[in-house]
Every structure is written in structure tokens, then in C-alpha cells.
Amino acid sequence: MYKIAFDVMGSDLGPKIAVQAAIKFLENKKDLIIVFVGDKNQIEAAINETGNVSTTQYEIFPTTEFIDMHGSILDVKRKKDASLVRALELVQTKKVDGMLTGGHSGAFLAGSHFILGELDGIIRPGFMPTFPTMVKDRVTLFLDAGANNDNTPEDLHNYAKLASTYSKTVLGVKNPEIGLLNVGTEKGKGRELQKLTEKLLDEDKHLNFKGNIEAREMLTGTVDIMVTDGFTGNVALKAMEGTSKILLSAIKANVMKSFMAKIGALFMKNVFKEVKTTFDYKEHAGAILIGANGIVFKAHGSNDIQGFVSTLRMTYDAVQNDVLNKMKKEMAIK
Amino acid sequence: MYKIAFDVMGSDLGPKIAVQAAIKFLENKKDLIIVFVGDKNQIEAAINETGNVSTTQYEIFPTTEFIDMHGSILDVKRKKDASLVRALELVQTKKVDGMLTGGHSGAFLAGSHFILGELDGIIRPGFMPTFPTMVKDRVTLFLDAGANNDNTPEDLHNYAKLASTYSKTVLGVKNPEIGLLNVGTEKGKGRELQKLTEKLLDEDKHLNFKGNIEAREMLTGTVDIMVTDGFTGNVALKAMEGTSKILLSAIKANVMKSFMAKIGALFMKNVFKEVKTTFDYKEHAGAILIGANGIVFKAHGSNDIQGFVSTLRMTYDAVQNDVLNKMKKEMAIK
């Protein structure tokens, strides 16, 4: 049996959504126990309301505190019984195989650092979401999506190593192709950071480094892994999210203006559904904190049920494939 | 009469496209003379073929060399008679009021630096394209879109000043709102660069600084001006371009798979046309090099006729509104 701790207090829409997502996910996962971490009464109420889950498939770890979105990173020290802190401790004491939370990003990063620490050789863990791409069944792992403001070339080299192991282990990609996000594809492009990283990746013969890659290739499925620093990664990700949101809503707004277009949209319903499914961020609504000494996922706090189910699936896949130990081995290779 | 030099050799599709675009643009601009800079024979052939232009509306400045896309930035020193070099010289000697080229970006930047130099107080000019936004008739000026790899807080402060003057003068915006591209909207976000820039912008009471802004707001029309460093700007811009291209082509590819959807698309034709017009990069296919001591525009080399017409329009608007002198005055204010 695998065990995953779920900090259900870190949901903007309340713990009920999180519990409902977990129960939905448990439906066809008979080798998994989910440990709900948070307010006992709220969790029990949500379970009773949702029903349809065997008591052998979950546990409740009751906590009395939680860190809300207006909290501070210092709360991980102040609030000993915060659900986020307890969920991380369950990973640290190996009571569970992994955890997820939709809570405060800064507190999550600080908590992971203080409670779990990092894998040998890692100084700055990175957020690694997966992107849908134009290539069927090929997703792109993207990191760092914003755990850090500044990264060194060594950080980015380590990200490539960890993501490569993750891609092989969890996604079953044989020889994952790695790209470095840059302002051009030629050699020697970018800032000092990119120039030095390019050199490190090029020299590491264990990695399948394909060179520099531009941000317009983020969704084309050109590579399996795209590495960048946390500041640039965060900006690129949000530019992408913003653009797809704006474009789809511009189409919608224009459809509403015309009767003919409404009919047309009806005929095109399946097209929009297909495109939405391919590029739906709810299907990619979480990111592993890679480099942390534990399998820990950050989900979007604003997730709906589908979003949390998706992050649960990612956590389960990572746990089931024992990716942490494989990353530890990778980091032990000099 | 206004005069604009057009380096027609800097067009990936050949000078003919550039000449055709110019002739089209001249149709209803009776106060403008375009100086075609490049290979005389090719220019004359293109004019003869296109016809329909008065000889009082254009001049030819014949050159014997040009810098192609595989050229080097050193070519601006080596090739004295390159069309790009000559077009910049025409600006420097005030034979024309402004110029545009679709040619080699690096050579353009180097040429502008050596031939024109910078406005007082400017060290690193920036590329400033304009974005379409969701707000009708509001475009966002975005800079630096990639003229530099590294920028200082002072550079970004100057960008805000120059763009503000541009927005007022050329676009007629009364009190342009300025945002700083960052990884969050709270104060103190980002790297040292963003933190120090935020402080400078906040303290400058001549500027209407609205604070940090995330990349997902690039198309929402939240501000009139968005400043960032050249590396981040280039990545954000390409992420945006890539996403809109991918989404629209995913819709198209899915439409092609179904007869019903094809019918639907027909009914929705006007919707797609409207969205395409709003977000069409061909309508925004060029960028001024702001901070250069002259009105100089870089068009995409891959532009079609419409793309070059759009950049010509931007150049004409800048020239006609005497924006260079207004920026000089702005930079003279301490």
C-alpha cells in the first residue's frame, strides 16, 4: 500500500473540494491510502457528505492550525500544528510516501527546506509542472517554474539531471531530450547564466542535451524537458497561461455577439472540447518540488475537484515509481 | 513633407515585398516620401511591376552591399555601402526623419549605436513593440523586448520615461499607466533588478507607476506600458506568440477532422477574423529602438506586405508626431 498525505486546508474553495477530489481519485486506486491532514470536523463532514469511500482507504490526521494565503513563511516555525507542517513531517518520518498541498507557496518552500531538507548536492529545489504539447502523449517538464528568483548554472544542471530521471522513471521516456530556455537557438545566447549552463549541459554526457530553445517552443513538444531559472520560468508560464485564457475568452466573447456564430460554435463543440482537453491546465494543475528530500507536490490553491485529482495522480505516479530513490542515485553519480 | 528611409534588402522574402508594402502605404499618405535603400535594379523592377506610384513619392538610394541574416554585427564596419548602414546614415545626416529595416537585428543594434548613438542619459536602447489588448483601442507598449541581455534598474527607469513620452505623443494617451513585469503583484517581488526598479519608478513623481504586474496581464490591457529587461521581455513575448499560434492551429487542425466542425467554422468565420485582427502580430510587426538618437524601427524580416505596411505606419506615426524631440526633452528633465 502507498500512503499520501493531503493537506486539505490549503484549498481556496475549502477542504471539502479537496476531500471530494481525494475520494474520487481513490475510486480506482486500491493500493493507496490517503491521509487527510487538517481540521477533523470539516474533514469528517466532507467525507460523510460525499460518502462512497471505504474506511480502509483513508486516515485522518487532525490538526488545530493552518497557514492561510495571507500567512507568512515564518508561520512554518510559529504554527507547530499547522496542517502543512504536519503533512511535511509525515513525509519526513516516512509515515507517508509523499504529500501534496494547495497552500501558501512560500510557507511550503520554507517548510520543505526546514523539515525535509534537500537531496545531496541540491541547494535550490525547483517547481516542476508538466505542460501539454502539440505532440500526442508527449508532455514537457518545465523547471524552475518559480520556486526561486535567482539560480546558478549548477542549479540548472541539477534540474536537468533530476528532470531526466523523473522523465525516465515516471513518464517512461527512454532518452529524454533536454532544452535550455533562451532568447535564441544559437550557441552562446543569453546572459552569463545561460552561457555557463549551456556549457555544463553540453559537457555532461549522461544528458541528452539538445541545446537552446525559445519560449515559442514551450507547447510544441520539441523537447521532454525545458530548464530555466525560476524568475524566467515563472514569467514564461504566466505569459502562456494568460495568452491561452485571453484567446479563448476573446473567441467566446465574439461568439456571443452573433446568432450565426452561436450556431457555428455548437457545430464546433467537439473541437473546442478537444483543444481545451489538450491544453487544459486543470489537467496539469500541480508541480513537484524537485530536489526536495521527499516527494512533495504543490497544487494550485484555486483548483477545483478536477485540478486536485490531477495533482493527486501526479503524486501517486511519483510515489509508485519510487522516483525519489532514483533521483538520489542520480545525484550520487559524479 | 516627411521622409522615411526603407532598407528594402532586409526582407526575407526579397525587396519586392518591401517595395510593394511601401507603395501600398503611400496610397493615402501624400505628405510622405519613401527613400528605398538597396539594390537599384531590384528596386526599379519591383516598382515597375507594381506600378501605381508617383515618382514624387519615392527616391532610390542605390547601394552595392547588404548584410544578410547570416551576417555578423561586425559587417556594419566592414560593409560601408550596406543598405542598413546607408539607411542609418541618412537618419544621422538628417536627410530623412526616420528609417526601418527587416534586417539582421544584431547588425541593426550595432549600426544604430555606432552611427546614431543614444539620447543623453541612455546607455542601452530597448526594442519596444506594441501589443494588442482585450481593451478596445488600448495597446500596451512593451520594452525591452530583447535588444539587451542584461539591464540595470536605471535602464528600466529610462524605458518607463521614454515609453511614457511615446504613449502621450504618438498614441495620445493622457496619463499612461506603467507596470513593471514581475513574478507577483506585491511590493518587493523579484530579483534585485525588479526590487531596485520598483523603487526608482515609485519615487519618480512624473510617472504614473501602477506597481508590479504579472505576465498573464500582457494582453489584458491593464496598463499602457510594461517595462522589463531584454532577456525576460524576449522570453515573455515569444511565450505569448508561441501560445497563440499553437492554440489557433490546434483549433484549425481539429476543425479539419470533422465535416460538422467545418460547417461550424464557416458560421464562425467572422469570429475568427475578429479575434485574428485583434491579436494579429502582423498588425504589430515592428518595434522602435527606443533610446537611439533617431527614429529607427526594426520590422520582422519574415513580414509579408501587411507586416511591412504596419511597421511603416508605426514609423510614420513616430516621425509625424516628432517623438524624438519630445523624448530628448523628457531625458533633459532631471
Explain what you see:
Two copies of one chain form a homodimer. Chain A folds into two domains: 1-122 and 291-323, Isopropylmalate Dehydrogenase (3-Layer(aba) Sandwich), CATH 3.40.718.10; 127-281, Isopropylmalate Dehydrogenase (3-Layer(aba) Sandwich). Chain A has an eleven-stranded mixed beta sheet with strand order 3-2-1-4-11-10-5-6-9-7-8, sandwiched between helices. In chain A, a hairpin with a 5-residue loop joins β10 (286-290) and β11 (296-299). The model of chain A has no long low-confidence stretch (mean pLDDT 92). The longest helix of chain A is centred in the last third of the chain and has 27 residues, at 230-256. Chain A contains twelve helices and eleven strands. Chain A has helices at residues 15-26, 40-50, 75-78, 83-92, 105-116, 153-171, 192-203, 230-256, 259-267, 269-279, 305-320, 323-332; strands at 2-7, 32-38, 58-62, 98-101, 126-131, 140-143, 177-181, 208-213, 225-227, 286-290, 296-299. The two termini of chain A are 34 Å apart. Helix content of chain A is 46%, strand content 16%. In chain A, α1 packs across α11 (305-320) and α6 packs across α12. Chain A is globular, with a radius of gyration of 20 Å. Chain A has 334 residues and is α/β, with parallel strands linked by helices. At the A-B interface, α8, α9 and α10 of A face α8, α9 and α10 of B. Chains A, B: Its main location: cytoplasm. Chains A, B: InterPro entries: FA_synthesis (IPR003664), Phospholipid_synth_PlsX-like (IPR012281). Chains A, B: Catalyzes the reversible formation of acyl-phosphate (acyl-PO(4)) from acyl-[acyl-carrier-protein] (acyl-ACP). This enzyme utilizes acyl-ACP as fatty acyl donor, but not acyl-CoA.
